[in-house]
């Protein structure tokens, strides 16, 4: 298993290119299942999850191709493919459940393994299933698989008015993709407003879908009989950008994050500014990216925050901002409202000398305690990123073990950090 060895203490300075978003690219790859015509994506990040999704699509019979330097990938899903997502591929990546909606909508049947309960919480998919049932699908769970079909004699899903019990990102995406090929109108209430959902909707519109209201909590879809191919550029990864914002801030650095979008990161930027970090968009309309300048931990003030659905503070940034808080001064509380078990980085951060107490969904920390390098274990994707940030400021050497979690969702992270002056290397087992 690969590890990262970090010698802390260097400010991050320079420029770094932010990649396309994992959480946009994965549903967009699944959207290719909705048409027999080729779908071209550009700006696809180089990540383990993208490789897994590609293998999953190929397993079904989708022809895939990579091209060019700019993360170009093409997908062609023929009429005769096997609408099945096996456990072996699904277990490593929850986003595989995004195949369910498109397969059912186009092929009238699907057999998709239940995604495993991942470390950050139980993460059921009941809302995905309930929504598809409201659209007329017959669904049961059998031997760990979601088995879905249309009733006899039906060729298409039926539009429906669906209000999900909670805001669910992949749930909204699954139902949105299914609704595109359903008969009549579908209204999704309590829909997720995340930029990745809106970017998926933009792509679907390029494919001929009739969608309104994406980016708001009510999405309306007029179903069409067929979609066609398209070319779409994956939106920049706001969570990767946010991670670099926190890393630069924690090290007292000064960097330009190319392609990062301030409008997708407002809640995080507000907290950074309150902490004493300068963050500003560069170029016309922010097209030059985000500049971050930090005076360093001694002059930063720790910030309390609660994770919320977009446009609130993202749960996927909770661990990284906690690492930043540790080098800032004063006490702060961090409340995780989305996932019931997303504080696993806390014990590992405490190995580095952090002062944190967890009580249920609230972590209370006191910033400013000196961090010293140690061997720590990555437990999930964003937890890994928080350990890397802490390692960049800790004295001495930090060894982050089990970084396959990090590789799931960050595109060449250690190379990008090295480009900013970090002393970091991958140790391959
Ligand atoms: C691939 C992808 O885009 N992953 C993101 C997506 O995950 P994901 O789409 O899995 O997260 P959801 O938005 O669905 O989960 C939100 C909450 O709803 C619950 N829930 C969800 C669906 C359901 O059917 N039943 C149910 O109870 C979940 O357990 C969780 O407590 O959004 C999360 C919340 O922003 C992010 O952390 C993940 O990075
Ligand atoms: C939790 C995450 O991803 P996933 O939903 O793929 O597990 C994440 O990106 O932080």
From TrEMBL:
UDP-N-acetyl-alpha-D-glucosamine binds at residues 94, 123-127, 316, 338. It is an enzyme of class 2 (transferase). The keyword Cell wall biogenesis/degradation applies. Pathway: Cell wall biogenesis; peptidoglycan biosynthesis. Cell wall formation. Adds enolpyruvyl to UDP-N-acetylglucosamine. Keywords: Cell cycle, Cell division, Cell shape, Cell wall biogenesis/degradation, Cytoplasm, Peptidoglycan synthesis, Pyruvate, Transferase. It comes from Comamonas faecalis. The keyword Signal does not apply. It holds the Pfam family EPSP_synthase. This is UDP-N-acetylglucosamine 1-carboxyvinyltransferase. Its main location: cytoplasm. Belongs to the EPSP synthase family. MurA subfamily. Phosphoenolpyruvate binds at residues 22-23. It is found in: Cytoplasm. The active site is at residue 118. It catalyses: phosphoenolpyruvate + UDP-N-acetyl-alpha-D-glucosamine = UDP-N-acetyl-3-O-(1-carboxyvinyl)-alpha-D-glucosamine + phosphate.
């Amino acid at each position: 298993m690969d590890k990262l060895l970090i010698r802390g203490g260097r400010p991050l300075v320079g420029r770094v290119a932010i990649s396309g978003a994992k959480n946009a690219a994965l549903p967009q790859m699944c959207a290719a299942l909705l048409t027999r015509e080729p779908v071209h994506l550009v700006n696809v990040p180089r990540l383990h999850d993208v490789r897994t999704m590609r293998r999953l699509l190929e397993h079904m019979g989708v022809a895939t191709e990579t091209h060019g330097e700019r993360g170009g990938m093409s997908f062609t899903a023929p009429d005769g493919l096997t609408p099945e997502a096996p456990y072996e591929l699904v277990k490593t990546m929850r986003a595989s459940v995004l195949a369910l909606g498109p397969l059912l909508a186009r092929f009238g049947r699907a057999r998709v393994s239940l995604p495993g309960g991942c470390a950050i919480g139980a993460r059921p998919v009941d809302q995905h299933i309930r929504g598809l049932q409201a659209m007329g699908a017959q669904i049961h769970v059998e031997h760990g698989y979601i088995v879905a079909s249309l009733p006899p004699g039906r060729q298409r899903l039926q539009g429906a008015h669906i209000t999900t019990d909670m805001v669910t990102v992949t749930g909204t995406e699954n139902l949105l993709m299914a609704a595109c090929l359903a008969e009549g109108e579908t209204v999704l209430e309590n829909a997720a407003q995340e930029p990745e959902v809106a970017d998926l909707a933009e792509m679907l519109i390029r494919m001929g879908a009739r969608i309104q209201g994406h980016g708001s909590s009510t999405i309306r879809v007029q179903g069409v009989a067929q979609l066609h191919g398209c070319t779409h550029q994956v939106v920049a990864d706001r969570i990767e950008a946010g991670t670099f914002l926190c890393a630069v801030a924690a090290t007292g650095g000064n960097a330009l994050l190319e392609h990062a979008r301030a409008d997708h990161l407002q809640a995080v930027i507000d907290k950074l500014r309150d902490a004493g970090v300068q963050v500003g968009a560069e170029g016309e309309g922010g097209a030059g990216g985000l500049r971050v300048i930090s005076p360093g931990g001694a002059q930063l003030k720790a910030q309390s925050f609660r994770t919320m659905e977009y446009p609130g503070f993202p749960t996927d940034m909770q661990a990284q901002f906690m690492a930043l808080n540790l080098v800032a001064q004063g006490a702060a509380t961090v409340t995780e409202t989305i996932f019931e078990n997303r504080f696993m980085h806390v014990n590992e951060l405490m190995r580095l000398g952090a002062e944190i107490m967890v009580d249920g969904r609230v972590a209370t920390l006191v910033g400013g305690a000196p961090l010293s390098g140690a061997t720590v274990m990555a437990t999930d994707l964003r937890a890994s990123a928080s350990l890397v940030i802490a390692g960049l400021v800790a004295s001495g050497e930090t060894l982050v073990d089990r970084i396959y979690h990090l590789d799931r969702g960050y595109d060449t992270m250690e190379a990008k950090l090295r480009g900013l002056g970090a002393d970091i290397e991958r140790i391959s087992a």
